[in-house]
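The authors assume throughout that readers already know how a fold can be written as discrete tokens. A single example would do more here than another paragraph of explanation. An entry of this sort, consisting of the sequence and the corresponding backbone structure tokens, reads as follows:
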Amino acid sequence: MDMPLTITDAAAQFRSGALTSVQLTQAAIAQADRVDEKLGVYLHRRDEDALADAERADADFANGVDRGPLQGIPVGLKDVFATKDAPTTAQSLAFDGAWTDGVDASVVARLRDAGAIFTGKNTTMEFVTGCPDPDKPFPIPRNPWDASKWAGGSSSGTASGIATGCFLGGVGTDTAGSCRNPAAMSGITGFKPTYGRVPKTRAVPLSWSFDHVGPLARSARDCALMLQVMAGFDAGDPWSEDVLVPDYTAGLDGSLDGLRIGVERDHHTRVDGVDPVAVERFEAALEVLEAGGAKVTEISIPFVDEVRSATAVAYFSEAFAYHRTNLQRRWLDYGKDARLIIGSAALYSAADYVQAGRVIADARQRADELFDSVDLIVTPTVGGGAPDVDGLNFLTLLTLPIFTPIWNALRNPVINVPIGFTESGLPLGMQLAGRHWEEPPVLRAADAYQQRTDWHLRVPPIAG
């Protein structure tokens, strides 16, 4: 049986009788057997439990119970979400996971209720920050297109698992690009919704003001299906907003007519370190959008460099607030990058944190004003292919042209879509950002682009 590439395809085959959830889950497990050891997709697998869940999904179908398009779909889960039947580690020896035992995070409970089949917990970076640490007893997430390269972070195993067919969708977090960055480097789609759209209840935090929860999948349409279930107010999350959840698939008609898209080149394609091939692929993607009926104009986002600096000050400070006591007690249990990143915030003052917040607040207002003249803003996601994983550390990571963090500060909904490959065959992506609480135009544009291209359907050779 050929494994379906998308959730949408699999859902249709379930309902036509061409495929069962058990068959699909068995194929996903077999694929994990093939690639997991090479790529470091999983920290914990639920093979037997996943098959039992798949049997129940098939029984529901047979009895006329249809919970929606996620019923029977294998889904991976970044190992920062509490689950009632699997351990949570945040990929750290320093994590005390007692508060995650025997309970599901809100987003996990919602997906279970919708019939999703959780295949296991996926690798990440320690406490979703930094780089892989070979000195700790955890798998190193590797890129599905070249195992000598990084899978991106920090929803690393989730992205590589989707790219190779270990599951069809995944749940990640995004504090500075952790859904979009690995999606771009692994050649799939990753979506960061508006801040407060998806609850963070019982998810291990990095930075309360910047953490987002979002879906990863092959396509924008699949992300829309997942977001439909994941989104909505939850009183357990003080940052969750009680706003209407629209129908995310209703507008996915392939049309780009009348859509005003602002392209930001000043701080993305005209900076040092960007691969010229990445610029070519980005410009070609813009041509696809324009040919489809979108009106593309050039804009410039103000204070990009200042926002990047303010974001680092603010989210490092919040991470330090969360980890301060534990760092004092268990310093050596933390990996070297996590210690460096989180511990460095001890050098910031309260005045630094306040000033960073003021910069970000002003930048949000100015970004909102940009959306008076455009519906979406488009930029590259990363200005090149994935870096070598061996020897990667936080200081070298800072030199890479990664363009995701400002959107965590601005809090807009942003999606990564694949746009091609570097000369060495590594995936590239672009990100589309929309107004606060207006995810549908973002998904509409991403889906319309993917109806005209097939970059998101390319399968790495390791997947067979």
In short: The domain at 7-304+357-463 is CATH 3.90.1300.10 (Amidase signature (AS) enzymes). The chain has a mean pLDDT of 97. The CA atoms of residues 81 and 203 lie 5 Å apart. The chain has 14 helices and 13 strands.
